Amino acid sequence: MQLTPGRWGDPAHPVDLPTAAVDALKHLGVRRTDAEPVEPVDRPGLTADQLSFLSQVVGNDHVASDLESRWAHTRGYSTTDLLRDRAGDTSDMPDAVVYPASHDEVQDLLAGCAEQDLAVVPYSGGTSVVGGLAPSRRFVTVDLRRLDQLVELDEVSRTATLQAGVRGPAAEALLAERGYTLGHFPQSYEGASIGGYAAARSSGQSSAGYGRFDQMVVGVTLATPRGTIELGRAPMSAAGPDLRQLVLGSEGAFGIITSVVVRIRPRPTERHFEGWRFESFDTGLAAVRRLAQDGPLPTVLRLSDEVETAVNLADPDVLGGGSGGVLAIIGFDGPYNQATADVLAAAGGTNLGVEPGELWRVGRYRAPYLRDPLLDEGALVETLETAAFWSRIPALKAAVTEALVGALGATPPLVLCHISHVYETGASLYFTVICAQSDDPIEQWRTAKRAANQAIADAGGTISHHHGVGTDHRDAYATEIGPLAVETLRAVKQTLDPDNVLNPGILIPED
Ligand SMILES: Cc1cc2nc3c(=O)[nH]c(=O)nc-3n(C[C@H](O)[C@H](O)[C@H](O)COP(=O)(O)OP(=O)(O)OC[C@H]3O[C@@H](n4cnc5c(N)ncnc54)[C@H](O)[C@@H]3O)c2cc1C
């Protein structure tokens, strides 16, 4: 799938808003603006010397400085990104895009960039939603799509070495040929890539069964301006701190991940999905926590709150005669586990059968496609996420909802929430906001997001469970970890990237 600026997803398969949804938007005060997208205007790029350096490293055919290529690599896919794309805002446009074909080419690029006064942004799938592709100064994008190989598959250890530019579906296809799966299915699966999963510590919809992406990584190769680092000699080691954890989540600030070794599993021969109804989010939460703490966990475990359940279920009868309540989805890669169902039933759940489960499975990557027609209609729609220990989840959910409603008061929002990643000690919360756009929807969202960030900090949540830091969360992240930890990150960056070539201003605040 080739992503296009200003709209998410496969342009060949857009999703239309149901007429009922368009009507419902009127109750939120949403008014269509009919603003036409503005075409981007070019601006001067690199010097001849800089272009010549890039061509020497990757070859003439693999350097693009035309407007179309550069525009296609401009920022990511947050709502503010889409709105700025639609306004023709070229401020985050790279001066060139280079397509290296090997680790050595990446290494040579990084080694020469300081001398050429070039900043670089690594780009795997380009699906960042936190400003991770928009550095603080002009830059060249290093698009890793030509690093698209399954390098090695060790069936004895059940590991696979995948290059950073392998997209989600391609990784699954390569592994499926040998009877394996990675089991990593984020909602951005169609566009995101292995390198980005590792760099931003992604978490997929099957995380209850397969774990987060960072839990799957056993080895990583990192190209830095100072040289190469290879980590992961054994699955576990007591030889000092685990430096793999320094690379995972480093979002291109320390180096470019060129390949990762991941744990793989046999491809399941059967899958089951089904829906469960609970009286309220609180009763569902207790059930989900019971599974997370005492098991047996399914592969997929999701719980929507009352608002999300009502908005997402076109047919309320799915919940048993329109009687309200909330919807949980469970899914199994492999045989159905009755013991999981027994835990849910004992906690007050009602089994709704396969229909809601299949509805969710079939539509699992389609929901983000709705954001574009919603924006077209004049709605502001965006998501945010966090995680916390179980004891803090109810207060955190209430505080974020209150902050969003308060900040968007003039255009009262719908605030939807679900849990889709669980751990023994806690879970993530994922919020979706829908309301009428004000005259300045970018500032409108930034104001609301600041309020939500403060509520997250005050209620003991983390600024991100899986979207990462980028530029949007950089300052909140610095506050979360404290000045000494920021100094530590800066010291690592100074060692690996002394000239601040890599993703300047992303992840770590600049001095
Ligand atoms: C519609 C939608 C749904 C989403 N759903 C999910 C979800 O379910 N779960 C989830 O975890 N995330 C989700 N995301 C966020 C995003 O897809 C993830 O953060 C993903 O991991 C990014 O992967 P990517 O390959 O697109 O990375 P990119 O966007 O290319 O890069 C992300 C960051 O990492 C850096 N980077 C990229 N490649 C490398 C590399 N090889 N080495 C070093 N640094 C690198 C970039 O410079 C950037 O700062 C979603 C995004 C969208 C738009």
TrEMBL record:
Entry keyword annotation includes RNA-binding: no
Catalytic residues of the enzyme: Y430
Matching Pfam families: FAD-oxidase_C, FAD_binding_4
GO MF, one example: oxidoreductase activity
Top-level division of the source organism's lineage: Bacteria
InterPro entries hit by this protein: Alkyl-DHAP_Synthase, FAD-bd_oxidored_4_C, FAD-bd_PCMH, FAD-bd_PCMH-like_sf, FAD-bd_PCMH_sub1, FAD-bd_PCMH_sub2, FAD-linked_Oxase-like_C, Oxid_FAD_bind_N
Presence of the UniProt keyword Flavoprotein in the record: yes
Site (Important for enzyme activity): R302
Binding site for FAD: P122, Y123, S124, G125, G126, T127, S128, E251, G252, A253, F254, G255, I256, I257
Residues annotated as domain FAD-binding PCMH-type: 90-267
Required co-factors: FAD
GO biological process, alphabetically ordered: lipid biosynthetic process
Ligand binding (substrate): R371
Keywords recorded for this protein, A-Z: FAD, Flavoprotein, Oxidoreductase
Family in the record: Belongs to the FAD-binding oxidoreductase/transferase type 4 family.
Name this polypeptide is given: FAD-binding oxidoreductase
